[in-house]
Structures are given as C-alpha cells and as structure tokens.
Amino acid sequence: MIAANAPRKRRSDAKLLVIDAHAHIAHARRRTLATRLRRFDLVVANDAMTLPASLAGIHVRTGHAVEIRLAGCRTLVGEIGPFTAVLFGAGDFRTRTEDRPLPPGLEKGDLIALGPLRATIEETLGHPRLVALRFEGSPASVWEGIARHGRPIQYAHMAAPLAMWDVWTPIAGAPLAFEPPSAGFVLDWKTLAAIRARGAQFATITHAAGLSSTGDPELDRRLPLDEPYRIPATTARAIGETKRRGGRVIAVGTTVVRALEDAASRDGVVHGGESVATQRIGADTVLRVVDAIVSGTHEPGTSHYELLRAFADDVTLRRAAAELDARDYHTHEFGDSVFIERRVRCVACATRHAPRLAA
Questions:
Q1: Which of the 8 DSSP states describes residue 91?
Q2: Which of 30, 50, 288, 358 is the right S-S partner for 26, CB 3.0 to 4.6 Å?
Q3: Is the CB of residue 171 less than 8 Å from the CB of residue 187?
C-alpha cells in the first residue's frame, strides 16, 4: 500500500476493495459504493466534527517544549475535561511519531502553557506520555483558546500542514472528534442520493473518535481508548426497523461499529442515548448489529485493522492485504476504501463457498 500524502477526500479515481460474506474478493471504483447496497439496508455514519486537538506548548516546570494531542474524554457534553492526552517532546508532525522524543518527566500538578491556555496534569496514566489533563478557565474561554491555538492532529506521511476543513467530513456537525472519522470522506450528496435510489436509508450517530496511533508500541496496544458516543432515538429506531425488514446495517467507519456494538452489548438491541464505548472489537467478537463496514485501508497491527478481524478471518485479510499492495491502493485517512461484509461463520456455509480471489 502507498501512503496517501495529500488531503484529497473524494477522489474520482479512488478504489474500493470488496470482501463479501463468503470471502470472495473483488475490486471496484469507490464511486460505485451504493451499488453494493440492497433495498432496506441502512447506512450509518459518524457526524462528529474534528477538533483542532494538537496544541504546542511549554512544560512550565522544566521549560521544555511539548506537543499535546488530546486523545479522549468521558462525555460529549461541552464541559472542559478532564481530557486524556498524549504528550510528545519537542518537534511537530514532520517527524514520525515513532521518532518523537518523550516529554520531560511528567508529574501530577504540572502546569502546561499552551498559547492562551493553561492546563494542569491531574493524573499520570501509567505511561510516560499519557495523562489526564484539565484546562483552566470557563468552558467558553477554553474552547475559544483551543480553536485559536490548536491545529489538526497530523502524521509525517502528510507533507504540508492540514487545514481544519481538510479533516471535516461532509456531514460533520458538533466538534467532538479528536481525529477525523475519515471513512466518512467517501460521502457526498451524490452518494447519499445514490443510497436512497437503491432503496436504502441513511442515519447518523456521534462518536468522539480518538487517536489512531501514538508511535509507541506499548501505548498503541491500549488503543482505542474509551470513547463517548450518542445514538439518536431516530437512528436506534431505524436500526430496529432495518433488522425487522431483513436489511443490513452498514457502518461507515470503525467508530460506528464500536458505538453500535457497545449500545447493543446488554440485550442485543441498539438503544438511543449517550454512553461510553470501552470494549475492543477483534477476531473473537461476535457482531450483534453491524453486517458490513466501509473503512479505509488499514495496516496489520493497528487498532483499526484489529476491528476488521471481526468481519473477516485472518486468511482472507492477508489475501486482501496482498491485493491492496499488488494494486497500489492508498492507505491512511485520504486513501482508498474497503467494503467488508460480516463473514459466514457456519462450517457448512464456509464449505459450500470456498474462498476464491476475484479478478
């Protein structure tokens, strides 16, 4: 796979790798996504807008330069923290996260000066980079300071600084995500019209998408962190109706899968309201709600790739990875996409539909 290094969200030449429920692999243009849908299907996307969650500052006790990346919170309400945050030493996105230095030794009570803002470390969280952080000031002044001083979280594969509008999806609403729910970049009004024309429906949730990587293997194993979400009552009802009609629930992105499966974890039914997703979804997860996912192309070992293992077995995903490499798919948030149906798990079905590689 090739790293997508320019913020082109809806490329006309974008590719779509398709894995169906019987492990057949095919290739298509992403603009044909709606043709994969059926009557009574429901497409669900995350409408969270991306925050300027990267903040440069000074660790006051030592005078050392730091970068704070806001990584999580416990509520979607407009309160100010505490936030979970990942800290780096001097430098910026132009240096790979794997090569970024550690921050100075962090202690409870340390003050961080971040342009017009001040934040205090309330707690260290068992890793030299990870803390609980609370900003000083009124909610209005803090949000204004974040808006003025912050910038999008960015990684070294992107050569030029990103603008905020580069990381907003077309359906973005409330600013609650720390990194973009980038699977939603596939959406535009033409695609939404095509979804309707297929007899499918469209709905949204709001999920505070967190960091995709910290560059530290030990810390990355903790991802995804706990993430709050909100499911509107209308979306919950639409999911119930879809299931009753025999339609499929298609999640646009890993955050949607995580929210819907968490919401159904108690009794198998998606209920409207707010909660916090704390679970990790992977190969051993039995999906109760989501039947297929539209996602970016993710590399093995990442938390996003681990979630895809709930949809397809490892043999199929390895074959898909080989296809992605062979056909020069682009990865990361501005890359190409995959459409994966939840695999058939019964032995008899798997025997009847032996995996094959589509041309």
A1: -
A2: 358
A3: yes
The answer, as to whether pTM is greater than 0.90, is yes
Residues with Cβ within 8 Å of residue 13, at least 6 apart in sequence: 29
Residue 163: phi and psi, rounded to 5, are -90, 160
Question: What would the two tokens of residue 73 be?
Answer: 């919170």
User: How confident is the model over 139-194, as pLDDT tens digits?
Assistant: 999 999 999 999 999 999 888 999 999 999 999 999 999 999 999 999 999 999 99
Q: Are 230 and 274 in contact (CB under 8 A)?
A: yes
> What are the residue boundaries of the structural domains of the chain, listed by start?
2-50+161-352, 54-149
Q: Give the pLDDT confidence of 278-315 residue by residue, as tens digits.
A: 999 999 999 999 999 999 998 888 899 999 999 999 99
Estimate to the nearest angstrom the gap between the alpha carbon of 61 and the chain centroid. Answer: 34
Please list, in sequence order, all residues whose beta carbon lies within 8 angstroms of the beta carbon of residue 155, skipping any fewer than 6 positions away. 93, 96, 97, 213, 332
Sheet with 201-207, side-by-side order of all strands: 25-29, 15-19, 337-341, 292-296, 249-252, 42-46, 201-207, 227-231, 273-277
The domains spanning 2-50+161-352 and 54-149 adopt the same CATH topology: no
Which alpha helices (DSSP H) does the chain contain, by range?
A: 139-149, 189-197, 217-220, 233-245, 254-263, 303-308, 314-326, 347-352
The dihedral through the CA atoms of 288, 347, 314, 297 has a sign that is negative
- Residue 315 neighbours by CB distance under 10 Å: 10
| 112 CB-near residues (< 8 Å, 6+ apart) | 57, 58, 59, 60, 66, 68, 118, 119, 120, 121, 133
Class in CATH terms, 54-149:
mainly beta
CA distances to 21, 230, 251 from 353, in Å: 9, 38, 25
In CATH terms, the superfamily for domain 2-50+161-352 is: QueA-like (3.40.1780.10)
Find, among 122, 83, 82, the residue nearest to 106 by Cα: 122
pLDDT band at residue 77 using 50, 70 and 90 as cut-offs: low
Residue 245: Cβ within 10 Å count: 11
Separation of alpha carbons 272 and 154, rounded Å: 33
Q: Is 56 helix (H, G, I), strand (E, B) or coil?
A: strand
